[in-house]
Write a structure and sequence with these properties.
Elements: E1 17-18, E2 21-25, E3 34-35, E4 42-55, E5 58-71, E6 77-80, H1 82-90
Protein name: Zinc-ribbon 15 domain-containing protein
Length: 91
């Protein structure tokens, strides 16, 4: 729409960005489950969690890496260190 006296803007740029998260099982503890205090099931797994910055749906800049135990039923999670995971899964 052209309005007299109003300048027409030049090229417009837009960016689509986000912060996707990726989880994967830790091979050493795959198939071993812990007890979840929130939902009272034996469904907590050790996972490797990663968060990236993405531009146009392509993740290219890693922002955060951590190890977690996460419930596959209720979704509750807790960040833990490697030594903590070893200690929890020894039981």
């Amino acid at each position: 729409m052209c309005i007299p006296g109003v300048p027409i803007p030049g090229p417009v740029m837009f960016f689509i960005f986000g912060f996707p998260e990726f989880d994967s099982n830790i091979k050493k503890y795959e198939g071993v489950k812990l007890h979840c205090d929130r939902c009272n099931n034996d469904s907590m797994e050790a996972i490797r969690h990663r968060r990236f910055f993405s531009m146009f749906w392509i993740p290219f800049l890693p922002l955060h890496f951590s190890k977690r135990i996460k419930c596959t039923i209720c979704g509750s999670f807790r960040d833990v260190s490697k030594s903590e995971i070893d200690q929890l899964f020894k039981r």
